[in-house]
Design a protein that fits this description.
The protein is 46% helix and 21% strand. Strand 4, helix 4 and strand 5 form a beta-alpha-beta unit. With 563 residues, it is an alpha/beta fold. It has an 8-stranded mixed barrel with strand order 11-12-14-15-16-17-18-19, surrounded by 4 helices. A 5-stranded parallel sheet has the order 2-1-3-4-5, with helices on both faces.
Length: 563
C-alpha cells in the first residue's frame, strides 16, 4: 500500500495529488493510477496545501474529497482560487453527493468522480481527459505570454483585443513608450532594463485586473493596454512614474503615454494601436509632457500621412520627387568659388503642392520607404554630375545624404557603384553625408562600411556635427573627409561671444584632425566673415544661394565659369 510519504520516482511522469481523509479511498485511487502517474497524498485540505507549496510546479491535477476534517474540500477550493500560482491547477471532486456538483462547479471544480468508485477504466479516462485539457491550456498560456514582462505576446493581444473593444462598455487603447530605451540599456545595463520591463509588465497586469483589460509588450520599447474607459489618465501616469522611481537609477527612465479613448470595435485593433502610438509623437521631445490624447488633429494628420505613403510608389514613377542642389562655396581664397553642391529632395505633389522634406522624410524613415527615395535622389545626383561634365566640362562634387536605414543596406555599395560606372564619373565627386548620430550606433560595423566606400574613392562627410554625443576620442577613430558643422551652431552663432567661440573651436578641431570643414545654414555677411577668419573651408546657405532646381544649378555653374 502507498502512504503520505510517497514521492515520485519518475519525474517525467505527470503528478496527481489525491486528497481524501479515508486511507482506503486513497489506496484504491493510487492502485488505479500509479502505473501512469506520479502521486502525492494528503488527508485534508491543509495537508494538500502543504504538498502544493512543496510540489506545486509539478502537480498536474488534484483529486479532492469534500468531507474532510481540518479543512474540507469546498474551503480548499475557495482558498486555492485566491492564490494566482495555484489557480489554474484543475480539480476533480470525489463525492457521493450529486447535489453538491453545482456548488463545486461554482467553486472551481472541473469534473466529478462518484463514490463508490466506478471501474478503473472510467476513472483513468476521466483523469486522462482533464490532464490533457490542462496541459493544452498550459501550453497556450505559456506560449501566449512574453517571458520578459508576463504580458500577452503581440499576436495573442491582436487576437483577443477585438472582443474587449467590441464589448458593451467603451474601452480605451493606451500606449506606453520608454522614450530612452536604448540609452537605458547602454548606460545602466541589461539587468536594469529587464527589471524595468518586468515592472512595467506587472503594473499593466494590475491595471488589467482593475479595468477588465488586456495588455502586451508590443515591441522593444512600446507596451499596449486595452481596458475599460476612464476620463483621466493622470493617476495612471503618476503610479507608473512612482513605480519606476523605486528602481535603482529609475529616475533616469523616461516614458510617454498616448491614449486613444473609446475604441468601440468598429475599426481593426491595429488602427487603435497605431493611433495610441501616434498620439505620443507630439510630446516625444517635450521633457515635461508625459501624457497625450489622440484627437481630430492627429487623426487628420494620420490620414494625410497615410495618403502620402499610399501614393509613394506612383509619385516616384511619375517623377514627383526631384533633387534640388544647394551650392557650396570655397571661401579660403581671395574670392568665394563655387566648389560643389548638396542634393536635397523636394516633392512636387499634384494635390498638395510642394511638400516639406521635414514632413515626409521622417515618415518614410519610419516605414522603410526612405531607401527607395534615397536611391532616386542618388540617381539624379549622379546624372547631374554626368551632365556637368558633358555640358560644362567641369567636375564639381555633389553630396547626398545617406540615412541610417541606407547605410546598413548590403546592396547599397553595389547600387552606387553601378550608378557611377554607368555615368562614367569619378567616384570622388560623389560625397556621402552620414549623420554624426549614426556613427554612435553599431560603430564597428559602420566604420567598416565607410572604409569600404573610401577605398573605392568616395568622399565621406560627417553631417550635423555637434548634434549627437560623439567624444573627441571617438572622432579620432572615425573615417571621414569632411566635417559639416550642425546648422544649429551657425544659426545661433551671432547671439553671443560664447557661441562664436564654440564655432571657432569646432573648426579648430577639424583642422587639428586634418579634415575640411563645411558650415551650412549661413545667411548673413557677419557669419561669413567670422567663418572665413576661423579658416572654415566651405559654406553653404542662403547667403550665396537657396537650393536650386537641377537646370538652374547647371546655369549657375555656367555663369560662375564665365565669370
Amino acid at each position: 500500500m502507498m502512504n503520505k510519504d510517497f514521492k515520485s520516482a519518475f519525474t517525467e511522469r505527470r503528478t496527481i495529488l489525491i486528497v481524501d481523509d479515508e486511507e482506503i479511498n486513497r489506496d484504491i485511487l493510487a492502485a488505479i493510477l500509479e502505473d501512469e502517474y506520479a502521486l502525492l497524498l494528503a488527508s485534508n485540505g491543509k495537508e494538500a496545501f502543504e504538498q502544493l507549496n512543496s510540489h506545486g510546479d509539478s502537480v498536474t491535477l488534484v483529486l479532492l474529497d469534500l468531507n474532510m476534517p481540518v479543512m474540507d474540500g469546498l474551503t480548499f477550493l475557495s482558498a486555492k482560487k485566491a492564490i494566482p500560482s495555484l489557480r489554474n491547477i484543475p480539480v476533480i471532486v470525489l463525492t457521493s453527493e450529486s447535489k453538491m456538483e453545482v456548488e463545486c462547479l461554482h467553486a472551481g471544480a472541473l469534473d466529478f468522480i462518484k463514490k463508490p468508485y466506478e471501474s478503473p477504466e472510467i476513472v483513468r479516462a476521466r483523469v486522462g481527459r482533464i490532464v490533457d485539457l490542462f496541459e493544452s491550456s498550459e501550453t497556450i498560456r505559456m506560449t501566449s505570454r512574453d517571458a520578459k514582462t508576463g504580458l500577452f505576446t503581440k499576436e495573442y493581444f491582436e487576437f483577443y483585443a477585438p472582443s474587449h473593444c467590441a464589448a458593451n462598455e467603451p474601452h480605451d487603447m493606451v500606449a506606453v513608450q520608454l522614450s530612452n530605451y536604448a540609452l537605458v540599456e547602454e548606460m545602466l545595463g541589461r539587468e536594469l532594463l529587464e527589471k524595468t520591463l518586468l515592472s512595467v509588465g506587472s503594473f499593466l497586469l494590475e491595471e488589467c485586473e482593475k479595468y477588465n483589460g488586456i495588455s502586451t509588450s508590443y515591441n522593444n520599447d512600446i507596451f499596449l493596454f486595452c481596458g475599460k474607459h476612464r476620463d483621466n489618465y493622470e493617476e495612471f501616469v503618476a503610479k507608473l512614474r512612482a513605480l519606476l522611481d523605486e528602481l535603482p537609477h529609475g529616475q533616469n527612465i523616461r516614458f510617454k503615454v498616448g491614449v486613444y479613448a473609446n475604441a468601440d470595435g468598429s475599426l481593426p485593433v491595429s488602427v487603435y494601436a497605431n493611433r495610441a502610438i501616434d498620439s505620443i509623437a507630439p510630446i516625444l521631445n517635450n521633457h515635461n509632457a508625459m501624457l497625450n490624447y489622440y484627437d481630430e488633429t492627429l487623426h487628420e494628420n494620420s490620414m494625410f500621412q497615410e495618403k502620402l505613403v499610399q501614393g509613394f510608389r506612383d509619385s516616384v514613377n511619375n517623377g514627383e520627387f526631384v533633387a534640388f542642389f544647394q551650392p557650396k562655396y570655397g571661401i579660403l581664397g581671395s574670392r568665394p568659388v563655387l566648389a560643389g553642391a548638396e542634393a536635397l529632395v523636394r516633392w512636387k505633389h499634384p494635390e498638395y503642392g510642394m511638400i516639406s522634406p521635414g514632413v515626409f522624410i521622417p515618415l518614410f524613415e519610419k516605414n522603410g520607404l526612405i531607401r527607395r527615395l534615397d536611391r532616386e535622389i542618388y540617381r539624379q545626383a549622379v546624372d547631374r554630375l554626368k551632365r556637368l561634365k558633358k555640358e560644362c566640362g567641369v567636375e564639381i562634387p555633389i553630396s547626398v545624404n545617406v540615412s541610417r536605414v541606407d547605410i546598413f543596406d548590403p546592396e547599397l555599395t553595389g547600387y552606387i557603384r553601378q550608378l557611377v560606372k554607368e555615368a562614367d564619373v569619378n567616384p570622388s565627386l560623389l560625397h556621402l553625408e552620414i549623420t554624426e548620430s549614426a556613427y554612435t550606433e553599431n560603430t564597428a560595423d559602420l566604420i567598416s562600411i565607410v572604409e569600404g566606400f573610401r577605398n573605392e574613392g568616395y568622399q565621406i562627410e560627417m553631417d550635423d556635427f555637434g548634434s549627437g554625443y560623439s567624444s573627441l576620442n571617438m572622432l579620432t577613430n572615425l573615417p571621414f573627409d569632411y566635417l559639416k558643422v550642425d546648422i544649429g551652431f551657425i544659426k545661433n552663432m551671432l547671439k553671443s561671444e560664447k557661441n562664436i567661440l564654440l564655432v571657432k573651436s569646432i573648426v579648430d578641431i577639424a583642422k587639428m584632425m586634418q579634415t575640411k570643414v563645411v558650415a551650412e545654414g549661413v545667411e548673413y555677411q557677419e557669419q561669413y566673415e567670422y567663418l572665413k577668419s576661423f579658416g572654415c573651408d566651405y559654406i553653404q546657405g542662403y547667403y550665396f544661394s537657396k537650393p536650386l532646381p537641377a537646370d538652374d544649378f547647371v546655369e549657375r555653374v555656367k555663369k560662375e565659369l564665365a565669370a
